[in-house]
Specification:
The complex is a heterodimer of chains A (372) and B (166).
Chain A (H helix, E strand, L loop, with lengths): L8 E5 L11 E7 L2 E8 L7 H7 L6 H5 L6 H16 L5 H29 L3 H22 L8 E2 L2 E2 L7 H24 L2 H7 L7 H6 L5 H5 L6 H4 L25 H25 L18 E9 L2 E9 L7 E5 L1 H12 L5 H11 L3 H5 L1
Antiparallel strand pairs in A: 1-2, 2-3, 4-5, 6-7, 7-8
Chain B lengths: L1 H11 L5 E4 L6 E4 L4 H10 L5 E9 L4 E9 L4 E9 L5 E3 L8 H12 L2 E3 L27 E2 L2 E2 L15
Parallel strand pairs in B: 2-5, 6-7
Antiparallel strand pairs in B: 1-2, 3-4, 4-5, 8-9
The chains are: A alpha+beta (372), B alpha/beta (166).
Chain lengths: 372, 166
Amino acid sequence: MSLLKTETMVINMGPQHPSTHGVLRFILTTDGEVIHSAIPDIGYLHRGMEKIAEQITYHQFMPYTDRIDYLASMNCNWGYALTVERLMGIEVPRRAEFIRVLVGELNRIASHLIAVGAMGSDLGAFTPFLHAIREREWINDIMEMVCGVRLTFNYMRIGGVSYDLPEGFMQNLTEFLDYFEPKVKQFNDLLSYNKIFVERTSGVVPIPAEKAIGFSLAGPNLRASGVQWDLRRDDPYSVYRELEFEVPVGKGEYGETGDCLERYMIRINEMVESIGIIRQCIRMMPDGERIAKVPRVLKPPAGEIYARTEAPRGELGFYLISDGSQKPYRLKIRTGSFTAMSIIPDVAQGCLIADLVALIGSLDLIAPEIDR
Amino acid sequence: MIVEIFESLRAQFPDARMELKEEKPYPWIFLQSEIIRLVCGHLKTVSGFGYLSSLSGVDRADCFEIVYHLTSIGSKKNITLKVRVAKNSPSVESIEPVYPSAGFFEREVFEMLGIKFEGNKDLRRLLLPEDWQGYPLRKDYKYPAEYHGIIHERGGSVDRTKKGNK
């Protein structure tokens, strides 16, 4: 019998793999179960948004921003609206700002629910995913109340929001918050402290702070590595200056700093903070106009701007160049998942295939946001 | 703030061409393209700009512009750098050795505008299919009439700008 030789094997993971969150694909070179290299192949959901933006007017691009990240449409709407407003110097009415924070944070909860639920289901815990979807359903109902849509809201406008809050909205929202707050603890009991889940994620693929900054990780992924960076607090926009909230940062209390469990727990803790922000918004909601007076035909002065907001997946930046005409000269969209994707080939080396699944889940990659 | 950074760069690279453009609302620094990697390295180690927020390519009328948005997490400041490259054989030094995340950003600029980044370890296509022709984000880009049997202009499409079509 000839000697057994160690050989590497090439495995194709995706594009239709249950754990790849949409369509993204990895070409893995493995030695047994250990990954030697993971090469991502992306672009399956590329729609050419940056090119589309150059063909249409400023107002017309708003529905496209919904599709950048379909789990956090409000935040994408907001980022784009904010960019154009800053370029034109439009003052948004105070009521509109509070409505924006309110729906933005609500959308953050919905997005994080999917993130933690889907991570659980990637790792074999399917029931928590259904719990997460159940809670999100109520948020979808609230959003439907606000703007008539459940997923791609197209709610914000340049200068404000498209509708004022409907009658009975605050009551429904308060009921939801009262219902949801204890559910976070229930979710923790169900999944976060589950022994199997902790064993699969604690200490798995830790990303040190230096590497996280070098690869421009954003949002919860960056904070999980112990970096104090939240644009809502550190580069404040809208009315976040007046609101009180904590920024959860990884300290290594669940294993190693920046491991998969840490990234997961940051999202759980952020949901709790978002509840607090929404409650403050309900208390402080002023009366007034819902939208500023904005001309129907927008012609921003020639110039450029890079504006960024804290979306659920981190820094969402729009780099907008205007040449004074009705259409943007150039619009570059920088998303959180894009840079999160770029770190995978580096950190996946030497980990197990099963750990790669945990890594993808914990980075909360959304394929349309990567490809745009 | 940007003035101080500009002065420190001026002192560090006395022979290089650089300009401070104090445009409203956001000033930026224009650099000679050959020194971009050195400048980024200097800004990262000395001034603390360790976070590359974004890297974009722009097709201007007479050149390509590459725009770098850097952030300092410690001092919460931003800075914008720009370099320009000629349209015939556009090429610039990669900053991937300084900021690893630039690898992906540069790949995207490479495939959308056709700008080469010298020193990028893996300069391949990123988002488009491997047989795609042309550089879509260039202003003179012509849409292909068809791609593997998918026709771009569908017959009977309605032109809403003409009278009678509503």
